[in-house]
């Protein structure tokens, strides 16, 4: 593993921002350090070599950005979260003629597909639209295809059953060339698009926002900025969902929310 000094990482962050406009300055350093070291090891170079190859208009800086962003997810990850949404959140949304959901930091789409399936089984999918966004264009391309390895479907199916799914997860995908392909009925209700939580602004008003396991990679100052964006994007009485290791504490907006579940970090905007 190629080891990077913190001073070298700061130089790299500055160079990425100078070339691409993408700002990693608010990201937690230990996570960036690990990912940058892995990138350099995979490409058999050191920081000095990398800095020499990063240039305006070149593809390397964008490849590096893709590698430095976090892209892990799985369908129905944290099944108890999906059960709670189904039992304690959906009842609030029943009276809306149209529903807008935002899955922020969607990676390759697993949570967005899970939410669509949940909405389908609750009878809300036809009047819903799910916006799934990420800053990593490579994973968004994969998400739009809705294709997963059959090996992954075992874990996905186990999660689905633990989330009290009504059917079999296989009802929502078909198998082609040893891959699982999410059904068109589910995919057509999801809009995948590029969005940077740390730099882009409000683009719609939502009744439900899921931004799970994203904030843990940001510094406190950046988290506060992102929380403000999420707050401004929520309709009154809309819901904000965070990961189990995340909280609204010290966000600057916690007084504007009612806690629905303090363990699963589900909140409702009340002012």
What does this structure look like?
It is a single chain. The chain is an alpha/beta fold. The protein has two domains: 6-68; 79-146 and 183-269, Rossmann fold (3-Layer(aba) Sandwich), CATH 3.40.50. It contains ten helices and ten strands. The chain has helices spanning 6-20, 29-42, 47-53, 60-68, 79-93, 110-122, 137-145, 150-162, 184-187, 220-233, and strands at 99-104, 128-134, 147-149, 173-176, 179-182, 190-194, 206-211, 234-242, 257-261, 266-269. The strands form two sheets. Strands 6-2-1-7-8-10-9 form a seven-stranded mixed sheet. Strands 3-5-4 form a three-stranded antiparallel sheet. β9 (257-261) and β10 form a beta hairpin. It is globular. The chain starts with 5 loop residues before the first helix and ends with a strand. The model has no long low-confidence stretch (mean pLDDT 93).
- General shape: globular
DSSP helix fraction? 40-55%
Distance, first to last CA: 49 Å
Q: Can you say what the CATH homologous superfamily of the largest domain is? A: Vaccinia Virus protein VP39
Unreliable runs, pLDDT <50, ≥5 residues?
Answer: none
* CATH topology group of the largest domain: Rossmann fold
Strand order in space, largest sheet: 6-2-1-7-8-10-9
Total helices: the number is 10
Q: What are the secondary-structure elements, in order, as H or E?
A: HHHHHEHEHEHEEHEEHEEE
Structural class: alpha/beta
CATH architecture of the largest domain: 3-Layer(aba) Sandwich
Mean pLDDT: 93
* CATH class bucket of the largest domain: Alpha Beta
Main β-sheet description: 7 strands, mixed
SS elements, strand count: 10
The number of distinct structural domains comes to: 2
The radius of gyration computed from the alpha-carbon positions, rounded to a whole number of angstroms, is 19 Å
Proportion of residues in β-strands: 15-25%
């Amino acid at each position: 593993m190629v080891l990077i000094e913190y001073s070298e990482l700061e130089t790299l962050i500055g160079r990425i921002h100078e070339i691409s406009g993408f700002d990693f300055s608010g990201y937690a350093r230990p996570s960036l350090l690990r990912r940058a070291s892995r990138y350099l090891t995979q490409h058999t170079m050191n920081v000095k070599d990398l800095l020499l190859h990063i240039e305006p208009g070149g593809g390397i800086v964008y490849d590096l950005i893709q590698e430095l962003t976090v892209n892990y997810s799985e369908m129905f990850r944290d099944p108890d979260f999906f059960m709670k949404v189904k039992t304690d959140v959906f009842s609030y949304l029943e009276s809306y003629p149209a529903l807008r959901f935002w899955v922020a930091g969607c990676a390759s789409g697993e949570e967005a597909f899970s939410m669509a399936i949940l909405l389908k089984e609750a009878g809300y999918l036809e009047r819903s639209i799910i916006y799934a966004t990420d800053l990593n264009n490579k994973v968004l391309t994969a998400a739009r295809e809705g294709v997963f390895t059959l090996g992954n479907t075992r874990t996905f199916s186990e999660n689905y059953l633990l989330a009290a799914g009504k059917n079999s997860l296989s009802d929502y995908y078909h198998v082609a060339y040893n891959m699982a392909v999410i059904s068109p009925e589910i995919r057509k209700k999801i809009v995948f698009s590029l969005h940077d939580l740390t730099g882009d602004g409000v683009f719609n008003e939502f009744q439900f926002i899921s931004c799970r396991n994203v904030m843990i990679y940001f510094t406190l100052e950046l988290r506060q900025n992102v929380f403000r964006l999420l707050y401004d994007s929520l309709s009154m009485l809309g819901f904000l969902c965070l990961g189990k290791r995340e909280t609204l504490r010290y966000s600057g907006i916690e007084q504007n929310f009612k806690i629905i579940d303090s363990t699963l970090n589900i909140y409702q905007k009340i002012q």
